[in-house]
Amino acid sequence: MIVFKTFLKVLNKCKLTIIIYSVILIAFGGFNMQTSDTSTNFVESKPDILIINNDKENKITREFSKLHN
User: Fold this and answer.
1) How many CB atoms lie within 10 A of CB 35?
2) How many whole angstroms separate alpha carbon 27 and alpha carbon 47?
3) Cβ–Cβ contacts within 10 Å for residue 63, how many?
4) pTM over 0.85
């Protein structure tokens, strides 16, 4: 109960700051929802990958190279 009472005391001291923060957060959230671009298009593409193997050729590196070709 001591922790809860202390928490309420801190909230009462910082009441104005919490209210201002909440109002600004809600305002930015509302502004962001109004200006969001809803016509985003996804284009699937496969990136180019360069594999440089400085170690000896073994089964793991060979299969990894085949996988990404």
Assistant:
1) 7
2) 39
3) 9
4) no
